[in-house]
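Read as amino acids, tokens; as here:

___
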Amino acid sequence: MNIYFLLKLNQWARNPFIKRLGIFILHITRKRYLGIFMDPVLACNLRCKMCYFSDPEKRKTMKGIFKEEDLPKIAGALFHRALKLQIGCGAEPSLFPYNKELIRLGKQYRIPYISMTTNANLFSHDDWLELVDAGINEFTLSVHGVNKESYEYFMTGASYEKFLEAMKILTVIKETHPKLRIRLNYTINKDNLEELQTFFNSFGGYKFDVLQLRPIQPLGNTDYKDFSWEEIYNRYDPIIEKLKKQCSERGITCIAPGKADLLREARGNSPVVEMTYCYINPRYIWRPDFNPDTDTYESYAKKKQLSKAYFKNIFRAKNSVEDESKRLNYELN
């Protein structure tokens, strides 16, 4: 499955009525439509300045790890309705010892697309290869600085050399696993925008498929606190358009916010996100009262009358909240 084709399709299908109707039909016909976003461990080896793990008080609340025996129960309850499984959604999955088992469960339940987001500082060559052999479709690597100084400044505790070594390993692995996708995730702020002009000077020698540029978002009491876009608004287009052109020339998909999105205030989730987004961590599984020991997706949906709720969603006012910023407020090029 090409997840990026689905993103383009979502971008093209602007009508919220059509989207909600489509999800309702998938729901009642027992088809896949969930995006499962899973943090199997609530911990991180880094203290990135733009991340809530740089906040000591927030970090105290980020505790927990799934046991290996927890995974089959969760998989049996939800994976058969998943269109995508995303491992790592803020916490660092390389600290979880059962990633291979989790990926294999995803493949056992025929999840079409399985990806992992990681800072890439802990995995060895054998670790990468084992995850690929288990069946993962994509790695997303976090990189928030182009050169060593900015990378290690924003990603506190990380090693630029280890990141480059990971890129080198994955470049070699892609030669024998050409369907494996590599995505680089770069969070933009006013202090690292300009250096994107030399992005391919640093990373042009490595193989990757997607570059995702994300605007910085306030995530609590983080070390980095300048969330303003006003002062870089006029400089944004020339830098990003040049980078998009460079990506296009190299056959790389570029996912970037449009200039108009930079100053847009964050809003609540759209009905589409509410219907499709399934977040899992050791302290929370999909819904506050969902229990994989006793519930399946179908039994819970029946108990909560989700079919009725999703049908009503179809006809919600057109001017109701339609922010899909969790995953989909980006332009694909």
